[in-house]
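About this split. The held-out portion is used to measure sequence recovery: a designer receives only the structure tokens and must propose an amino acid at every position. Recovery is the fraction of positions where the proposal matches the reference. Here is one held-out target exactly as it appears in the evaluation file.
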């Protein structure tokens, strides 16, 4: 059989490409090279703007045209750098030669030696990764993550009053509302989102071993720490003054751990919604033309949530590996981070695919209120908690002499199915005050939800001041 034409190995670049392609703008080899060109050109302009080594600021039009190399970066530029790297066998050196070529085209050979001046490759790489990761997270991942949160928030508010039987340890427990349970997840995700939004994207620019040694020899009078800080800050990054040859990647480890945490909370959501679907609490809305099973025509499988679970697990496995390995570098430098960081897009891609599936899944379910009501009506014994608590309060207030209310209710309800009539008869026979007795007689599993509905208010947007 003839061989296939070249095929993608990763499903992210094949089957699921449409769902994750936005990440390629930043976390691809081309995206990384564009960022490297950006850093190289901005460094050169920073030096000329500050008249370093006898240079002078470029004519504004020339500076604009030089910066347009980054703005207009496309396939021709990608191919040219690839050609250069085939000779240099060094990715950053290929970018340096590419920038020098652009300077020659603009008649700027007189400042060509300021290209990559005083830099080690990692000075360029760490800033480029910080820029591309920040863009990928803030422009692609966070909007999708926020979309899931907003979808959940809307459902939580909509279903805030829909009472359902809770299941602790898989057993009937004090009722809650579906809205309140979804609000718990919203609250968890919001906290993580704030932590991710607060990420410090750090950068170093201090030479071969982080000492500014070559810079200082070139100009002993310059304040190289101030220059480094100014340049890193000009890129919108936070300056890291103490590094080896590499920026220590601690901020990356923190970011990946937080995204992995978000993945795991979302995984918990998926398994819960999947379970609610299997219990009949949620029904799935049929999609015209879709097939649930190749042999069972009746089936609508919760594949969106199952797909999301798998991709969240893959994403977290990669993110956990990134977080644990990137913080270690032998002595002043080794290259383990080079290959590792090229998989950041893969890690975020699996999470992004999961977010897409969760959004789709949440949009294709409907609450089955009849199922919720049926289970509540079949489990009146869950009111035992309320009764024993009221009796204890009555005993404390001197309106009852019942000994050990908990044991009394345990004997009545544990391991037994009882109905409304049984509980009403039991309450009527209790030695408690009239008001307390009336409250308990009126109680049903469907209204025994405490402050569940009001608790949903905690996820509502805070009104703007003023």
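Reference sequence for scoring:
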């Amino acid at each position: 059989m003839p061989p296939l034409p070249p095929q993608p190995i990763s499903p992210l670049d094949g089957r699921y490409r449409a769902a994750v392609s936005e990440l390629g703008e930043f976390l691809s080899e081309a995206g990384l090279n564009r960022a490297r060109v950006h850093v190289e050109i901005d460094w050169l302009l920073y030096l000329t703007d500050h008249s370093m080594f006898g240079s002078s600021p470029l004519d504004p039009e020339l500076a604009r045209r030089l910066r347009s190399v980054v703005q207009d970066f496309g396939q021709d530029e990608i191919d040219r750098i690839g050609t250069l790297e085939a000779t240099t066998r060094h990715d950053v050196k290929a970018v340096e030669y590419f920038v020098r070529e652009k300077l020659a085209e603009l008649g700027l050979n007189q400042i060509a030696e300021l290209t990559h001046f005083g830099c080690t490759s990692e000075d360029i790489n760490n800033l480029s990764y910080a820029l591309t990761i920040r863009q990928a997270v803030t422009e692609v991942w966070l909007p999708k993550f926020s979309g899931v949160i907003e979808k959940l928030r809307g459902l939580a508010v909509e279903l805030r009053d829909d009472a359902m039987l809770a299941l602790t340890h898989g057993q009937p427990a004090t009722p809650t509302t579906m809205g309140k349970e979804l609000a718990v997840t919203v609250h968890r995700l919001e906290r993580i989102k704030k932590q991710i939004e607060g990420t410090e994207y750090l950068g170093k620019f201090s030479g071969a071993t982080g000492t500014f040694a070559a810079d200082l020899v070139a100009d002993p009078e310059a304040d190289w720490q101030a220059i480094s800080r100014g340049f890193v800050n000009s890129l919108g990054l936070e300056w890291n003054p103490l590094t080896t040859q590499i920026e220590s990647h601690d901020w990356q480890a923190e970011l990946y751990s937080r995204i992995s945490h978000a993945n795991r909370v979302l995984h918990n959501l998926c398994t819960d919604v999947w379970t609610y679907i299997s219990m009949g609490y949620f029904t799935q809305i049929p999609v015209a033309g879709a097939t649930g099973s190749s042999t069972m025509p009746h089936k609508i499988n919760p594949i969106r949530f199952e797909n999301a679970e798998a991709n969240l697990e893959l994403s977290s496995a990669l993110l956990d590996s990134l977080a644990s390995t990137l913080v270690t570098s032998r002595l002043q430098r080794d290259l383990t981070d080079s290959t590792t960081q090229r998989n950041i897009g893969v890690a975020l891609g699996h999470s992004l695919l999961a977010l897409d599936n969760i959004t789709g899944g949440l949009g294709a379910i409907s609450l089955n209120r009849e199922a919720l009501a049926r289970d509540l009506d079949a489990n009146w014994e869950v009111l035992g908690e309320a009764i024993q608590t009221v009796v204890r309060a009555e005993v404390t207030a001197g309106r009852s002499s019942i000994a050990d209310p908990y044991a009394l209710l345990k004997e009545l309800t544990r391991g037994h199915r009882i109905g409304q009539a049984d509980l009403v008869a039991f309450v009527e026979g209790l030695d408690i005050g009239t008001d307390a007795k009336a409250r308990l007689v009126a109680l049903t599993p469907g209204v025994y939800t405490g402050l569940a509905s009001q608790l949903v208010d905690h996820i509502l947007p805070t009104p703007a001041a003023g």
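Annotator remark: The beta strands are 163-168, 171-177, 202-203, 238-239, 282-284, 365-367.
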